[in-house]
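Working notes for the structural subgroup meeting. M.R. asked for a predicted model of this chain before we commit to crystallization trials. I am recording the input and output together here so anyone reviewing the notebook later can reproduce the run.

Input as submitted:
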Amino acid sequence: MSRLKIRPSGSHGLVTHVTPQSAGWRYVGFDLHRLKAGETVSALTEDREACLVFVTGKGAVAAGGQVLGELGGRMSPFEGKPWSVYIPQDSDWAVTATTDLELAVCTAPGLNGGLPLRVIAPDDLGQEIRGKGSNTRHVTNILPEGEPADSLLVVEVITPAGNTSSYPPHKHDQDNLPQESYLEETYYHRLNPPQGFGFQRVYTDDRSLDEAMAIEDGDVVLVPKGYHPCATCHGYDLYYLNVMAGPKRTWKFHNAAEHEWLLKETSFSGAAQR
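Returned structure, recorded in token form:
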């Protein structure tokens, strides 16, 4: 199996645990908890900020000395927009599941420590359709660069069955602003129906990194560098949750030169990005 693909370690509890140390990079962390009603997960952010994303289900949340109440709602990531919570560094948080709960914990370095805790409600989220034809996907911006955070960028994408996404291929692995920003990235994949599969390729121009992976429900793919397009098969919609972070909190990408012609095609107009 590819070293970039992480399978869930079970169906209950902390099923995915990505740290900068385990990934071999500097910025992005990603945990995925699957809890039963009544179970609690808690942590301290220490020198990192966090974004809790309620992928599915509901939970009672306390963070930073505040009781935030019950958050969440959708029972499938393919139905509606999520509830999320932004938590700055040096804060505690706890979530007690009130239904079956799938909770993503996205983390990156905290830099200032002065940002307030906040609940990000579904109605607060921008949503857009990108691409056309077989490159259409639906993007929900949870923590875009226009909203306050120190390092984190968080976004959800739903790619309809048979479509491509993060395509034409693009990369963001050079700290070379304003042309390109360095951002590490994780993809947390879900499929509907869950027995489906898709594909993702992570590769560089010189092919020193070139890995193609079959992705199944619950897989996480690490993108340390390079281009990273994905596709889903006929009959199976693909959801993914992206977490990005780097030395500067901005998303400036570079398209693969040999595929930029696709951007001039009517069916692919506006197709770059996510």
